[in-house]
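[agent] plan:
  1. take the single chain provided in the ticket
  2. run structure prediction with default settings
  3. attach structure tokens to the ticket
  4. add a short note for the reviewer (M.T.)
[agent] executing step 1
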Amino acid sequence: MDPQFSWQFDSDHINWHALAHLYRIAPLGNKTPEGLSLAYSNSMFKCIVSHDSQYIGAGRVLADGVDCAYICDVAIHPDYQGAGLGKHIVSELLRFSAGHKKIILYAVPGKEAFYKKLGFKRMTTAMAIFEDQNNAFTMGYIDES
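[agent] step 2 finished; step 3 output follows
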């Protein structure tokens, strides 16, 4: 871990408005502070990275402790993308998730190669229902089949 960064692995003392800002500029969508608070509270593992009191990276894992862990919402501040921070966050989340029979994630379209380098393989049977199916199709998360 880079000593100039502060790493947090719990939900204590998070500024949810600042975290929502990180997700908005990453860009990973408009997540509300209240929604992020609930999502992080319900996540078994979490990782939040800050630098100079600013959130620069985050991610979390929904997990059942035995069978399935789902890495989600990995967000990196645009000024820090491409510097290895995302790789380090995912590596920490993978370390926390060790022992689960499967670790799953879905990537923002175009980022699949990044996750492939970290050992993830494309699933052939993954399916999803999105709140906004048309937007998910437009963004490339799902196809028409």
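[agent] step 4 note for reviewer: The chain is about 30% helix and 20% strand.
[agent] ticket updated
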